[in-house]
């Protein structure tokens, strides 16, 4: 693994907002063609971490490497070139309100290619079909549900066939069937096109269905990183604590039952 | 540190605000530089600029028309009222013409546009900023300065002088109406007094200022919008701030530009240019 240059590497990345540290030295390595999942509690800095990988935020200290090149303090115009190979799904979708779905998904294509109109529309149709939303080209974002916006965001991120895609909670707000569809899409892109994916999620089903490697972010550091196959059925205390936490907040009944059990014992 | 702690907190806060202000000024300078660089490297985004021209200039014509017409009318009333004390009432057109061409047309158009367009630009870009649409533009390898700032700034810089010409015409028309209906000054006499008083140089010095006003107010509106944070409340704050700052910038720069233009013998320059051309 060390023989191949990782697509993305963070080395001791620190970031604070108004004196409040969020990242306190994050180290992680994303290998080419894999799916890397970042887990972590709400507010732990997962989105901030992702934004460092594409230059939307600049690290206070540490290094960001893309294919071995140091891009930590790259100028905005330097980043514009790097970002051509990236797609990003924003947590809040970040669709352009003033543009139709067609123009939203076509945006990166029109920006970087001089394709004939018919080709652009064909590509948009394919991408929308891939996220299970065929034929909604003429709608505007205000007419879409939250889950639909999210999926249009995914369609826009894959439109230019990028080699790296960053997904910020791609399945939050989706029904189970559509969540699974997104999971399948992520795997498909990886297997058929060799896309490298970084996925931030709370969705453990998605995590186990797509990940090669998993990292757990807590207190501004990666406290655990490993192959998905190892972590899936490991009883690592950090992982256990994270999952327990998730379960408690999602299933209060189960937590209450657990407490009952312990008080009986 | 301990010395700092000994300072009254109000002074520390004042110092903080000064530093923040200086920092903001620096960032404003960087945005200006980035906008020139974007034009140089990738040219003018024509389609989007045309769209913004429609939104910024064309759709401002009604508000500018009403403002200019009524200002011209009230100015005729006031001028005639004042001039009648000296028995010079028929010369309303001279004073009104000069006032509207040199000063009121340009400044009123600029202030109306600062209010209407400045608020519009800032709230739109501010909403885009807080919903990460600006980040989305960046993430797709595009430049928000080229996509958002340039079209608006260019449209305002070109649009405001045109709106000013329109305001001047309507302001004089308003004066003419009041002079005719209220004071029985014949329209052709009124226009004659206007055209003898107002020179090409007056016209030039009035309109040239508005290129600067248009550029300034759009630049300020874009800058404040792109800096918005703190959700929708932040967008509201930014919008108010943008209108206040842009209006003040127009008024202050107007004084200095006017002073500067008075030092330049515009009439003589224009005449010699005319001779060279003929
Ligand atoms: N642009 C910013 N300015 C100031 N603070 C920020 C900014 N972006 C993030 N933060 C802060 O950084 C912390 C981490 O935010 P982040 O969005 O990365 O959390 P997250 O792990 O993605 O959480 P969630 O799962 O809820 O999305 C939060 O406390 C947030 O307030
Ligand atoms: Mg997040």
What is the number of helices of chain A?
10
Largest interface: A-B, 27 and 14 residues
Per CATH, the architecture of chain A is 3-Layer(aba) Sandwich
Give the count of structural domains of chain B: 1
Q: Enumerate how many helices of chain B there are, as a single number.
A: 11
The CATH homologous superfamily of chain A is termed: P-loop containing nucleotide triphosphate hydrolases
Mean pLDDT of chain B: 91
Question: Tell me about the biggest sheet of chain A?
Answer: 6 strands, mixed
User: Considering DSSP H and I runs of 4 or more, what fraction of the residues of chain B is helical?
Assistant: over 70%
The sequence of SSEs of chain A as H and E is: EEEHEEHEHHHEHEHEEHHH
Lateral strand order in the biggest sheet of chain A: 6-7-8-3-9-10
**Mean pLDDT metric of chain A:** 88
CA radius of gyration of chain A: 19 Å
The CATH class designation of chain A is: Alpha Beta
Order of helices and strands of chain B: HHHHHHHHHHH
What is shown here, in short?
The complex is a heterodimer of chains A (265) and B (278). Chain A has 265 residues and is of the alpha/beta class.
Secondary structure blueprint with pairings:
The complex is a heterodimer of chains A (265) and B (278).
Chain A (H helix, E strand, L loop, with lengths): L7 E10 L2 E11 L4 E6 L5 H8 L7 E6 L2 E2 L5 H7 L3 E4 L11 H12 L4 H14 L15 H13 L5 E5 L7 H18 L2 E5 L3 H7 L2 E6 L2 E7 H5 L4 H14 L1 H13 L1
Parallel strand pairs in A: 3-8, 3-9, 6-7, 7-8
Antiparallel strand pairs in A: 1-2, 1-4, 4-5, 9-10
Chain B lengths: L1 H5 L2 H34 L3 H11 L4 H24 L7 H39 L2 H7 L4 H40 L3 H11 L2 H27 L4 H33 L2 H12 L1
Helix pairs in contact in B: 2-7, 3-7, 4-5, 4-7, 5-7, 5-8, 5-9, 5-10, 7-8, 7-9, 9-10, 9-11
Bound molecules: adenosine-5'-triphosphate (ATP) and magnesium ion.
The site of adenosine-5'-triphosphate (ATP) has 11 residues of chain A, from helix 1.
